[in-house]
Design brief:
Largest sheet: 2 strands, antiparallel
Number of strands: 2
Strand order of the largest sheet: 1-2
Number of helices: 6
Strand content: under 5%
Length: 182
């Protein structure tokens, strides 16, 4: 038999929550843009602020965290994420025009948003089990690189076998862990 005990702090001077249910919750992320016009307007609105990070992005050869935060806050990484998975599901015309607007402020931001949006769309074509895993958290960013070289894929029971080595994706540093599949 296993016995479990729990303790609840009663010290009124303690900064810790008094009960497990009192743990502060993170606010829900904002909803992704609901329409083409809303997404393009969001990109247009943050483009001037992104311009302040353009030189730093060039110098660092990656996006500054503040620039990524602006994209996250506007949920512009989610333009092509299907609605059923928490995204905007807005299509390629919207993705292209949001990229154009973002690039007016910082070309690097536009490039990364475009590449990662395409990666998200690619994952949305995977089997449902993979989509559930990848899109389990809101505003998932996907670093993906497909470079087909080497021997061709071989059909095997249950799918295909692909052998070879591929390098990291350019926008990998904008993924939450700062890494990418290699």
């Amino acid at each position: 038999m296993t016995t479990a005990t729990a303790s609840v702090r009663t010290d009124p001077q303690s900064a810790a929550p008094q009960h497990p249910d009192d743990v502060p919750r993170l606010p829900a992320p904002p909803a992704p843009p609901a329409s083409h016009d809303e997404a393009v307007a969001a990109a247009r609105a943050i483009a001037p602020r992104l311009g302040a990070y353009a030189a730093e992005a060039d110098r660092l050869r990656t996006l500054p965290a503040e620039a990524v935060r602006l994209l996250d806050d506007a949920r512009l990484f989610d333009v092509l994420t299907p609605r059923v998975w928490g995204g905007g599901g807005l299509g390629f015309a919207t993705a292209l025009l949001t990229t154009e607007e973002l690039s007016r402020g910082c070309a690097s931001v536009g490039w990364v948003r475009a590449v990662m949006g395409g990666n998200t769309w690619t994952v949305a074509q995977f089997p449902v089990e993979a989509r559930q895993e990848v899109f389990s958290a809101p505003s998932t960013r996907v670093a993906l690189q497909l470079r087909l070289s080497g021997p061709p894929a071989r059909r095997v029971p249950g799918g295909y076998l692909l052998r070879g080595m591929w390098g990291a994706s350019a926008p990998a540093s904008t993924t939450p862990s700062g890494s990418s599949p290699g």
